[in-house]
Structures are given as C-alpha cells and as structure tokens.
Write a structure and sequence with these properties.
The chain has 338 residues and is α/β, with parallel strands linked by helices. The protein is built from twelve helices and twelve strands. Helix 5 links the parallel strand 1 and strand 2.
Length: 338
C-alpha cells in the first residue's frame, strides 16, 4: 500500500518505486526521479517492508526499527552546501535500507534537544562545538559525527581529513608551477586552512595575507572573494569547498567576458587564474570550466555513519571509533600552468 501511495505522489509506477527503494536496479531512474521518490517515502514515514515479507513466509523478524535524528551543525540549511546535501542523501537511503526511521532533521539552532530522548541515535553533519555536543549527550550517547575535521575522540566519527585534502590540492598547484596561491574559505580553526598554510611554509613560500579571504564558504562569498583577489597578483586559488569555487569561477567568467568585450588584454590575463577545491559535488562536473577538485567519498561516508551508529545502538562497541576515508585529486579543466 505504501509503495502505491508513493507512486501516486510522484506519478510513476509502483514497480519503479520498488526498484528505487530496494536498490535492485541502479539505473532504473534518473537522479532527479530517485530524489523525488525518496522525498515522498520520507513524507509518509515509509519503512522497507522486509518485516512484512518475513511475516508472509512465516518467519519472525528480529530486526528492531530504530529512530535516527540528523542535525546539521555548520549551516542553517542543506541548500547552503551541496556537499552536506549529497551526504544526507546517502544517509537517508541507508537508513531506509536498514528499516530505520528519520526521527527528525534540524540545524543546531533549531534543534529541539529534549526530543532526542525519543531518538535511538543522532548523526551530526559538520563541525560540532564541545558545548553543543555535551548538550546532546544529556539525552543520548549514541552519537556519530560526519565531517572533514577530526575531533579528539569525543564521539564516533566518520571523516575524510580536510587538512590532507588541502595539502593534496596545494601540492597539485605547486607541481603546476604556481606559488602565488590565494585561499578562499573559513580561517577559524579550519583544517583546510591549516593545510594551506603548512604547505606553503613547508615549501619556504611566505604567507601573503593579502591572498587570503575568510568567508562563510557559500557561492556568493566565493564570487565576492574572487573579485577581491583579482586585485592581487595571484595565479591560482584554493577554495575550501566546491560551492565556494563555483562562485569564484563565476566571477572569473564575468571578468573574462568583460575583458573580451573591452579587448583589455591585462584584464583577460588576470582572469586566467587556476581554481581548485575540495568535495567533488555533482555540480563540479557540469561547471564551466569543469572544476578540478579533491574527491570526498560522500556516499561511502554516509553509509558507514549509519552502520557504525547502529553498531553502537546495539551495544557492539563502547569505545569511540574513528573511520577515516582517503581523498584523491579529480583532474578537470580549471587548473593549468601559470
């Protein structure tokens, strides 16, 4: 009945809904259609009917249905950062596949912490302050964080180290011959900023603070920061995340277009700035130029977060665990020799 209801909401056949929710045919629907189906399933609190199938064939199911809360700690909305949006999609699909219910989704400012007493576990997306983490621990100890910054084993966590990713990005630019490299992103206790600074210092390249723009890591701030950096003699920019880099590329495109219109050779030259970032979100594969970035394995991280959290809920481990995923450069068109 639930499959039929979801099919009616989305406007597809129940068989298509079944194939998407049970992941039996990965190519059965477009990413956009899959997203609509998952949203509809979430809206009616659909649970995969493995228990119903077991009852039908006369077998008792031992699987308990767990309620999992998700808290976005760094941004107000998933719309702000596609990285966390794509990470959340992986988490949501994995929760469904394990017959779990999404208890609630909120950001750190909106979260009704007292309601966590009715959740079996909590997944925190993004960097979490010690104060906020301690507040959550008053209601549950079943917590896992997913981020690019490791903590001091204060909770279970899934990471892809942002400092390591930043060093890879910087070494890639240096190998191309760049030394006048700007930075756009958060500079407050941020591992990617640390990686940027340490790489330059390790190569005996002095830090030029005129090349650094501290931002909230959004598209608009990337656009404005790149415009400001073009007043400097940089040849490349390392952006802390892809959405910032896409804003920077938009600024470069605008400057290049103006240069062509005015036939201003000096302006055209300034727009030839290499851009590299971290995340490898879907939009990075359709930008112009295609964005060179460091891949963070979001799908694997989301699946592992659910797996480790359920393991803790079922008392299969007690010490705090950290699972660290590797990162790698995805070479595209936005980087070139100076």
């Amino acid at each position: 009945m639930s499959l039929k209801k979801i099919a009616e909401i989305v406007g597809v056949s129940p068989s298509t809904v079944s194939r998407v929710l049970n992941s039996t045919v990965p190519t059965c629907a477009s990413p956009e259609l899959k997203e609509k189906i998952w949203q509809a399933a979430h809206s009616i609190n659909y649970i995969p009917n493995a228990n119903a199938r077991n009852l039908k064939i006369g077998r008792q199911s031992d699987n308990q249905i767990y309620k999992i809360a998700v808290i976005l700690s760094r941004f107000h909305s998933l719309d702000t950062d596609p990285f966390f949006y794509e990470l959340f999609q992986s988490i949501e699909e994995t929760l469904f596949s394990h017959s779990c219910i999404l208890h609630s989704f909120s950001n750190s400012e909106q979260a009704n912490l007292s309601s966590l007493s009715t959740a079996d576990g909590v997944i925190i997306l993004g960097r979490c302050s010690d104060d906020f983490l301690n507040k959550i621990k008053k209601y549950t100890r079943n917590i896992i964080g997913v981020d690019r910054n490791p903590t001091d084993y204060k909770m279970d966590e899934i990471i892809c180290n942002g400092k390591t990713a930043a060093i890879k990005a910087m070494e890639y630019l240096l190998a191309l011959g760049h030394q006048k490299i700007g930075y756009i992103g958060d500079c407050s206790s941020e591992s990617r900023y640390v990686g940027y600074c340490e790489t330059l210092i390790g190569r005996n390249i002095p830090l030029n603070y005129h090349y650094i723009r501290s931002t909230d890591q959004t598209f608009d701030s990337g656009f404005l920061a790149m415009h400001a950096l073009l007043q400097q003699d940089i040849t490349a920019v390392f952006c802390a995340n892809d959405i910032t880099a896409l804003g920077a590329l938009k600024a470069l495109s605008k400057v290049y277009s103006m240069a062509n219109t005015k036939r201003n050779a000096s302006t055209a030259k300034s727009s030839r700035v290499s851009v590299i970032s971290i995340d490898n979100i879907a939009l990075s594969q359709t930008s112009s130029p295609l964005l060179t970035t460091v891949n963070i394995p979001k799908e694997d991280m989301g699946r592992m977060a659910v797996t480790i959290l359920l393991d803790r809920i079922m008392h299969r481990h007690s010490e705090c665990l950290r699972v660290e995923f590797p990162c790698k450069i995805i070479e595209r068109d936005s980087c070139f020799s100076p």
